[in-house]
Amino acid sequence: MAKKGKIENNQKRRRMVEAHSEKREALRAIVKDQELPMEDRFAATLKLAEMPRNSAPNRVKNRCEVTGRPKAYYRKLKMSRIALRELGSDGKIPGLVKSSW
Predict the structure, then answer these.
(1) What CATH code is carried by the domain that includes residue 67?
(2) Do 55 and 67 share a domain, yes or no?
(3) Backbone phi, psi, residue 89, to 5°
(4) Which stretches of sequence are listed as region Disordered (predicted)?
(5) Could you identify which of 21, 35, 57, 72 might form a hypothetical disulfide with 81, taking C-beta atoms 3.0 to 4.6 angstroms apart as the criterion?
């Protein structure tokens, strides 16, 4: 099990990304628009830099929803390989059979 603080910080980042996503996308569109004057684009870049760091989507870490483990994460199942194996062995995931020979 991961530390509760790490899990809570990651959840806080997810909420910040969601809250600031519209403003961030609008500023990024201004920065990428080549037809606008350079001063406006530079001002938008400065506003983007002033936004909180944790509102950037790439700061969010994928973590297992069962254990909070950050590594060996399956995106499709939203859990780590260890949690998947344990739940599969207990028969809690339909269609998944642990192979043994």
Answers:
(1) 4.10.830.10
(2) no
(3) -70, -35
(4) 1-22
(5) 72
